[in-house]
């Protein structure tokens, strides 16, 4: 592990994340909202730091809220999104803005997503609204039909399960 990664983990007080990498929640809104689809209550918004290092990846998962990813530091990160209704995968590169990367990407609620750093490390911010709750979090590997559909798109995507 390089020195910068160690500094980020220590100074940002990051812990291992269940989907891979390291994270720390840095904000949870005191304001609550009701989810239209089921009437459950959630904080309006949550925010985390999320760090992936070379060899790590964020496994295919889905949350029941919109999620905004923003690149903070390090190498670009590749974000993959699977739309099960259309059986399609789109890939985006987050990083310092240029013609091949963008600093921010919004992932609509319910889409399956995975991420992988394109170098030694990528530090991003993830902002979820309505706020993140592990009750709304699903791994694709726990859904055989989703896993099978993702695998049809090739080895690269299958390895992120």
Describe this structure in words.
The chain has about 160 residues and is mainly beta. It contains three helices and 13 strands. The strands form three sheets. It has a six-stranded antiparallel beta sheet, with helices on one face. Strands 9-8-11-6-13 form a five-stranded antiparallel beta sheet, with no helix packed on it. The model has no long low-confidence stretch (mean pLDDT about 95).
Structural class: mainly beta
Large-scale geometry? globular
Helix content range of the residues, please?
10-25%
Mean pLDDT: 94
List the secondary-structure elements in sequence, H or E.
HEEEEEEEEEEEEEHH
Tally of separate helices = 3
Strand fraction equals over 45%
Give me the side-by-side strand order of the main sheet.
1-2-5-12-7-10
Count of DSSP E strands? 13
Question: What is the end-to-end distance?
Answer: 24 Å
What's the helix and strand layout?
Elements: H1 3-11, E1 15-16, E2 22-28, E3 32-34, E4 41-43, E5 46-53, E6 58-63, E7 66-74, E8 77-83, E9 88-94, E10 104-107, E11 112-117, E12 121-129, E13 137-139, H2 144-151, H3 155-158
Antiparallel strand pairs: 1-2, 2-5, 3-4, 5-12, 6-11, 6-13, 7-10, 7-12, 8-9, 8-11
Pick out its properties:
161 residues; mainly beta; six-stranded antiparallel beta sheet; five-stranded antiparallel beta sheet; 46% strand; globular
Summarize the structure.
With 161 residues, the chain is mainly β. It is 13% helix and 46% strand.
């Amino acid at each position: 592990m390089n020195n910068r990664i160690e500094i980020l983990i220590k100074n940002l007080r990051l812990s291992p994340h269940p989907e891979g990498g390291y994270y720390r929640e840095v904000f949870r809104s005191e304001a609550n909202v009701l989810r239209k689809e089921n009437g459950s209550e959630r904080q309006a918004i949550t925010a985390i730091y999320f760090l992936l290092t070379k060899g790590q990846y964020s496994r295919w998962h889905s949350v029941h809220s919109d999620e905004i990813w923003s690149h903070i530091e390090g190498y670009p990160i590749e974000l993959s999104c699977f739309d099960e209704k259309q059986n399609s995968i789109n890939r985006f590169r987050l990083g310092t803005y240029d013609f091949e990367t963008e600093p921010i990407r919004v992932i609509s609620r319910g889409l399956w997503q995975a991420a992988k750093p394109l170098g030694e490390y990528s530090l991003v911010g993830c902002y979820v609204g309505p706020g993140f709750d592990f009750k709304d979090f699903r791994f694709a590997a726990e859904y055989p039909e989703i896993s099978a559909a993702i695998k049809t798109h090739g080895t690269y995507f299958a390895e992120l399960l």
